[in-house]
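Practice problem 4.
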């Protein structure tokens, strides 16, 4: 289990944009399982949407991307580098994410060639799919 301080040793994101709270398990270059505790005090709930707070889909995707970045950037040859979006494919949102939810984030790296790769990503709440798709990344 990695806490936020340990996560920050692997990926460059910082508050308020560090979108994962803890990592349950990871295998460098292969996979990562992380969690985001969605709190009522999150900065984006002030405007998305007043009186009906919903976590923006793009931030769910960012949470997944940061989870995948832990898997990729924990590899010895990638320490100190960054993982950037190269594309998003087959992504679907299935469930709203609201304050009080715990988002389980799972990314499996399914393809890599040089600095480019693809991660199969799934976000769930209480076992129900919130978002699912493929994320293409480039290590720079």
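Answer key:
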């Amino acid at each position: 289990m990695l806490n936020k301080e340990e996560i920050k040793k692997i990926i460059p994101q910082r508050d308020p944009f560090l979108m994962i709270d803890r990592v349950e398990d990871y295998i460098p270059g292969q996979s990562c399982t992380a969690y985001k505790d969605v709190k009522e005090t999150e900065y984006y709930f002030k405007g998305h949407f007043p009186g009906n707070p919903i976590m923006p889909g793009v931030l769910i995707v960012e949470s997944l991307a940061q989870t995948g970045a832990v898997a990729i950037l924990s590899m010895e040859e990638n320490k100190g580098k960054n993982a950037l979006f190269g594309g998003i494919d087959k992504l679907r949102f299935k469930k709203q994410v609201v304050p009080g939810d715990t988002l389980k984030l799972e990314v499996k790296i399914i393809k890599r060639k040089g600095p480019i790769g693809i991660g199969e990503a799934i976000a769930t709440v209480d076992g129900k799919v919130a978002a699912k798709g493929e994320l293409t990344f480039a290590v720079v």
